[in-house]
Amino acid sequence: MSSGSLRRRAQSGILARLRGHLVVSCQAPAGSPLKATAHMYAMAEAALLGGAAGIRAQGYDDVQAIARLGHPVIGLIKRDEPGSAVYITPRACDVELLAAAGAQIVASDATGRTRASGETTEQLVAAAHQSGALFMADVDCVDAALAAVEAGADLVGTTLSGYTLGPIPHEPDIELVAELARRLTVPVVAEGRYRTPEQVRAAFDACAWSVVVGGAITDPVALTRRLVSACSHHLLPETLGDDA
Ligand SMILES: CC(=O)N[C@H](C=O)[C@@H](O)[C@H](O)[C@H](O)COP(=O)(O)O
What we know:
Blueprint: H1 3-18, E1 21-26, H2 37-49, E2 54-58, H3 60-67, E3 73-76, H4 92-101, E4 105-109, H5 121-130, E5 134-138, H6 142-150, E6 155-157, H7 174-183, E7 188-191, H8 197-205, E8 210-213, H9 215-218, H10 220-228
Parallel strand pairs: 1-2, 1-8, 2-3, 3-4, 4-5, 5-6, 6-7, 7-8
Helix pairs in contact: 2-3, 3-4, 4-5
The structure holds N-acetylmannosamine-6-phosphate.
The site of N-acetylmannosamine-6-phosphate (LRY) has 16 residues, from strand 8 and helix 9.
Catalytic activity: an N-acyl-D-glucosamine 6-phosphate = an N-acyl-D-mannosamine 6-phosphate
GO cellular component, one term: cytosol
Enzyme class: isomerase
């Protein structure tokens, strides 16, 4: 058995560690003052202290640092490529890098949109498996999920639901979680716009394997904005100005 297959067999224990648990996505958006590996590492430590079972992390350096904490890591590399809308781990070489950095699971766009490289989901799955990692398909709909499982994905996330067509909804897509859990035999991860304990519970009620929460925990800029929008200075008539 190749070293990749041996390592991958060990990784299936990773799925058991995530079952029924919260995974926290520790990623800082471009321009955030928190965009540094040290900050994301501290964020991951805080999430684990709070009871998260795993971390979703972006970029080689963050994945490598966070993997040292000894908990399951879902790794991805976000990269815009000309001529394609695919930006989550678009290439097989990204998959190999993430596995080398210590990600036991590599997440990649599996929406069915064409990758700039022309590589297929089968090729990215093969790269993950040869590197000893599991492949998480980030999908937006049922058809994409079915195709990803056919291509060999080990787990499927609703990560990209609401991000491939029209305006981004406010609520998470719990219906998609329920539908995928009914139709797939691989674990279904609920991800995207989860903000409250009620939503997390609803995802588990819909048979999610794990729930990934990002911005509601790790984006203080967005969290501050939400509360600032309720402050009374927004309600003052403009004519009063700041000195009133
Ligand atoms: C759509 C996309 O690019 N999602 C990314 C995937 O890695 C991240 O930016 C999200 O933060 C993550 O999916 C968690 O979602 P939320 O931050 O909504 O809890």
